[in-house]
Specification:
Layout: H1 2-6, H2 11-55, H3 64-70, H4 75-78, H5 100-112, H6 118-125, H7 129-141
Helix pairs in contact: 3-7, 5-6, 5-7
Length: 143
């Protein structure tokens, strides 16, 4: 310490320089973490987009004619424009023209219990994978 003081360095300057270097180090760590998280998000987004684009071919091919027959009970709620459920009160979405993969994923989630709407769980509970593919194909064909 004596050598530093005798050679013209001020302790305040050393403290400031150390503080400045420490701030740069932490900013560098912060920026690196931000870039890493952003890249991870981008990777997840890219994987999701690839799954949506190419993953729909992994879903069993649905038969629109069979889907029309199998979706008869679905149209009781989902085929009526501006239909509102009585209790609990909410808007029932129309499925006509909806993405086929989305409908299939939603029905499978109701069937497995991941989605918690009791009526939909009861409706989807008895559907096979082929039934779900047919119903999804039918609703997706409606424009």
């Amino acid at each position: 310490m004596f050598i530093l003081l005798s050679s013209g360095f001020n302790l305040g300057e050393i403290s400031y320089k150390f503080h400045f270097i420490r701030e740069i180090y932490f900013l560098t760590l912060y920026n690196s973490a931000t870039i890493f998280l952003t890249e991870a998000r981008m990777k997840k987004l890219l994987i999701m987009l690839l799954f949506i684009t190419f993953g729909s071919s992994a879903i069993a091919a649905g038969d629109v004619a069979q889907g029309k027959i199998k979706s008869y009970t679905c149209t009781g709620c989902h085929g009526i424009k501006l239909y509102m459920n009585v209790y609990p009160t909410y808007h029932v979405p129309r499925l006509g023209g909806q993405n086929e993969a989305y409908i299939a994923i939603a029905l499978k989630a109701y069937r497995s219990g991941e989605r918690s709407h009791t009526t939909m769980r009861a409706q989807a509970g008895s559907l096979s994978d082929q039934d779900i593919a047919d119903i999804s194909a039918y609703f997706a064909s409606l424009k």
